[in-house]
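hey m, so remember when u said the tokens were messed up on ur end? i reran from scratch. heres the input so u can diff it against urs
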Amino acid sequence: MAGYSTVKACNGPLSPPSGVVTSPNWPNVYPLNAECIWSDIENATTSKNKLLHVSFSKFNLPNNHSLTLTSSVDKTPKPKVLTLTGSQVPDDVIVKGVNYTLTFSSVEKKPVLQSSVGEGFVLNYKYLECGGSITTAKDVIMSPDYPKPNNKSQICAWTIHIPDTSNNKTANILQFDLILDNKNESVKSLLEIHDGGSINDPVMILSRNATLNKTRLLSRTNKLFILYDNTATGTLGLIFHMNYSTHECNIFCDNGVCLHKDWRCNGINECGDNTDEIDCKGPGPTPAPTPTPAPHKGGSGVASYWVALCLLFGIVMGVVGVIFLPRIYRRLRFRNYNTLHEVSNPVA
């Protein structure tokens, strides 16, 4: 019987402030029976809780292989554990704790004749100054030191994931009011609201009108990712206040996305599958233009087949004239002579 052993293919630190972690041998396939560990070595002895944000750009692991994130909170003996597997790219993860450890395992639990591996994973991690993971049906998110201005170099992130509905006819999405107190339009770039559970999801427009400080928006699903980054400007940060609640949706695009009322017939494919632009009442289609007649060759305006017929007719008449006109002419000229000749003939 064949024997299997664990191969230590990789390990490393989760060093602040940020970094990238990939499966071993990426972008090639990872080895079987590998166990890789990345840990927060620099802060392993501290008791101060920290926020860690993890996002994925690639993820594909068979169900018998896994990636596990472990952390402890306030020196509790039982650590928090999050295990990820499968072929779907996970939503972003924000956890609070100390002594973070990230473990990848492709160890076969029992001998098998044939095993398969997945594509692997690519993840980005970043330590945060503020933020968190929110799962309540309604809540409030504010900028650091709100309502006072803040000019500290900080990066904060929040994930919001409200509960699903208990039936298939409706879906919960997020309705939120965003208040921006700053007069300077340029600082709006410090805040990003992503329409989904990841920093890789599309960014929502903060304001329909640049002159308004308050914006009400609806999400497409029951998830949002919010990022506030004031690490690069060194100027006065953005003051914002976001109040969200659960909005029940009962009209859907064909692809399952909640169909907002203001999406209908606005000329924009908001659904992504054009459902919101079907059966729209509007101005009728522009009539097709009258076809332009084909230009006539030669500029005479006479069809070519008439020209051919006339030419043929002229040839025929010419031949007839050459053959018969001389005979007719002689007959008409010597008509009296013929008559005299006939009379003078003797009678037999």
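this time it looks ok to me. Residues 1-8, 208-212, 283-302, 334-348 have pLDDT under 50 and may be disordered. if urs says something different then somethings off w ur setup not the seq
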